[in-house]
Each structure stands twice: as structure tokens, then as C-alpha cells.
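Moderator note: this is an archived Q&A kept for reference. The question asked for a predicted structure of one protein chain; the sequence and the answer are reproduced below.
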Amino acid sequence: MALLTPLPAKTPDHGAGVPAAGRDRFVDAVRAFGTVVVMLLHWLIPVVAWDGHGLAIGNALSSGQGWLVTWPLQVMPLMFFAAGAAAWWSRSPAGPVRFLRRRLGRLLPPVVAFVLAWAVVLAPAALALGVPAAAVARGASIAPQLLWFVAVYLLLSLVTPWLLRAFHRYGLGLILPFAGAAVAIDGARFLLGGPSWLGYLNVLFVWVVPYLLGFGYADGRFRGVSRRALVAVAAASVLVLALLVAAGPYPASMVGLPGDTMSNMNPPTICLLLVTGFQLPLALLVRGPVLRALAYRPVGRAVAFVQARSMTLYLWHLTAMFVLIGAVLFGLHRQLPEAWSADWWATRPLWYGVLIALTAVLVRVFGRVELRAPRVPRSGRAIAGYAGIGCLLAALLLVITTGTMITDPFGPQTVALLLGALGGTLLVLSRRPAGATSAARGPGRTLQH
């Protein structure tokens, strides 16, 4: 447990800033809660069968009233809220390239390890063990879809320096034009029949809202908000969300489900703004009890453990599930039980127990990459820095859309690896010589947020 990030002895009043040890325990708890909920929700939903030729993949939440689970458990707004608070505390006047490279110093190593492990080790090993190529290819295409969060986070990090300056001038009022733009995009899509690609502009307009709310929390803007006001905002958000879903065309689920003609997640819709509208007030309402719970050493250490390895847990929990599914389908030659059946319920304790154990092994192996303290680079040359970031974004998008299984030495996966290597090289080259002023070196400990 020596590797755990130490918790501060005293937590400031809500919004009062970063404690002396460089951490805000409430934000840590939000991130840890979100990470665990994402894992549990993903482990709940798989309905997988092998017909001898391919995998039939469904979602347990697509039957009955399963969509109800997605309203409280679609926690990505809380994750972007935590990311925004962390960005506020780690802001630097040195410029956007340096800010980005500081953030990437902690984010990219576990992502690179994940992509390389899938492309070079896991997919070839599965094929060598006799897993059908069609099943391996499907897994290799689904696993990197988790990187969408990394791509959006990178996009938000890219515009963070400008968002910080605008927030200093306009405060929380800066949310209004972004939320309005998201409403306009949805209106153009669903009322005016605009092209479907238009919705992808909401990748920025929707997710920047909880990100900016994280700025507000970190700057103490919510300190004077009453509990009655928080309850009113949460209730109004739920009511409007229910009305939107009832009126259509928005699906009831806040995650993508098989059979839906559209998804609230891909691309994001204004329904996720309303999810933010009730989840964040509820989180702030329980902030006091959360901090009191964190005062108990076992709870505090558990939260510190999860938040310090949040990216590793996020990236690898689906791989653990694929290993278990593969063992059942191709090792034991048995089908998974039908969702919500008696056998399904009876096997849930064993299912979750094995998944926790497998994930623990993967975190033990790959968590060290994330735990390694990032080296804060000096200020960078803008052109090389931006080019490197562009290459990394392109590599991420290729991996997300084409998977990690290399079937052609000149295919998109190889291009993604080359772009990733080029992007990393350009970021290194963007550093100033060692003799450059050291005054630009910022506080590195807040990077752990």
C-alpha cells in the first residue's frame, strides 16, 4: 500500500481549493465512484453467444425496463466534472502545449501499454490458444472503443487554456453558449433533418458542460448554493429528461443499446446535459457524508487505490470480461445463461468474483505504468507540439474505429501505431533545450488529479 497517494489530513470546505497535499478528496471519490460504476455496468450488460461462425452480442439492459439503470449509472458526466476540476488545479500560464504535455504525461503511458498489449500480445495469444479468428477480431474491435473517453479528454485538454481564460471572464455563464449550441445541433438533426454527422459537434458542446462545472467547483462557485436549490435543479432535470424521452426521438437508455435506431451517447445528445443536471447536484448534496466516510482509513485507502489506477481499471476491465467469456465459450464449450434468467442470477456472484480477480491481475501487471510519476517537461515549441497532439488524436481515432488486431502490415492498425510513435516523438522534440528557463516548471503533484 506504500504506492497509494497520501490523503491530506484536512479537507477544505467545498470549493475552497486544493488541500496542502495537492488533492481534493471529494473529486477523488467522484472519480473512483465513476470508475467502479463503469466497470460494474459493463460487466452487467453482455449477452454473448457463439453460433460456430460468429459472435452474437446483445445487451441485458435492452429487455424490459433495464434502461432505468442507465439514468443513475451513466456516470460519464461525473467523470468529466472531475477532469474539469483537475484541469483547474493544474492550470499553468506557460501555454497550451505545455499544459497538454503535462496532462498527457500521465494519460498516454497506460493507453500506449493497452494498445500495444492488445496488438502484439493478446490478440496473437488468443489465436494461438485456438480462439476462432472471428471472435478475436470482434474482441479486438470492441476493446479499444473505450478510448473514446481518452479522445474526448484530449480534445477538451486541447481547448482548456482558452476555456480557463474565458471562465475567468464569464464564470459559469460560459456554459450557456455551449449548452445552447448542443440544443441547436439536436434541433438541426431531429427537427430540420440535418445530416447525422452534425451530431458529432456535440462531442465538444455536450461534454464541455460538466468539464466547466468542474472549473466552477474548483473555484468555489457552488459554495453558497443551498441544498434546496440543488434538489430543485436535480428534480427539474429529471422531469425535462423524462419529457424529452417521452416525446422522442430520444431513446430511454442513456447508453447505446442493440436495436435502438439512435443512441444518446454516439453522438451525445442533450439528454446527457440533463443527466449532468441531476447527477452533479446529487453528488454535491452527499459531499459531506462522502468526506466523513473518507475519514475512515479503509474507505480512504480504497478510494486512493482506485483513483490512482483509474485509467488502468477503465482500460482493462473489458479485457478481463473477454477472457472470462472466451474461457466459457471456447474453453468449457458452454453458452452464457440468458439474461435475467434463474441461471443468470445464480451465476452473478461467481461472474463478478472471477471478473474482479482477473481485473486485479491485469491491474497488477499494467498498473505500474500509470503509477509511475510523470516527468513534467519544459515549455514546448508550439508547431511541433500541436503536430504531435494531432498525430496522437488521429492514432486514437484509427484504433477506436478499426480495432487493435493487425491483419495487414500496411493496414490502419499499423498506420495508427506509426502515427502514435510520430506524435510521441514530436512531443519530445517540442521540448526546449535543457538550458531553457526552469521557471516554467509547474507543480507536478496536481497532475495526479
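Archived answer notes: The mean pLDDT is 81.
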